[in-house]
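By way of example, we now present a protein record of this kind:
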Amino acid sequence: MGRNHHEALEPATDANGTAETDELFAVLSNANRRFVLSHLAQRETSPALDPLAGALAEWSDDLSLEDARIALHHVHLPKLQETGLVEYDETVRLTDEAGAPLDLVEDL
């Protein structure tokens, strides 16, 4: 017998990792997060939050420096860290898992 309508609404967790793929695309759907990943990939050193916020504010027409810092600290970096793409404490750095998503970001 086929799946009932409730099962069809649940995220797939098959061998293809559909739930993880959906989460990754959700994170990458935000232009500010794509900028952060691209910016980090182009740097030889890991920036602290304030220089990263400065770069984001300069790139974005909609964010002041303070707004960029707050958005990074409270929204974007936690989401990127949840998906395993960045680690941050005093500095922000890409993880080894960021390779394939970076290829997607560079293609956009």
User: Anything to note?
Assistant: The domain at 16-107 is CATH 1.10.10.10 (Arc Repressor Mutant, subunit A). Strands lie at 86-88, 92-94. The first strand starts at residue 86 and ends at 88. The helical segments are 5-9, 18-28, 31-42, 49-59, 65-82, 99-107.
